[in-house]
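Q: Convert this sequence to structure tokens.
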Amino acid sequence: MSGLLPSLTSKELIKILQSIGFEFYRQTGSHRIYVKDNLQVIVPFHNKDIKKGTLYQIIKGTGLSIDEFKKYL
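A:
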């Protein structure tokens, strides 16, 4: 499953999350929390690509399928 995921930086992922309606809620250390309705995703904010497993969990947390998420790339 993770082989289907693109490589994204935190900034690229945040732009996508904001385009689908997620808003910045707060930050704890290097982790930013974004919310939309009753959904919440935690994005590690580092200067490197997000690990595939982490990206998969974030996508899962948005309520979108991987294919739906890829439409926003």
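The first strand starts at residue 23 and ends at 28.
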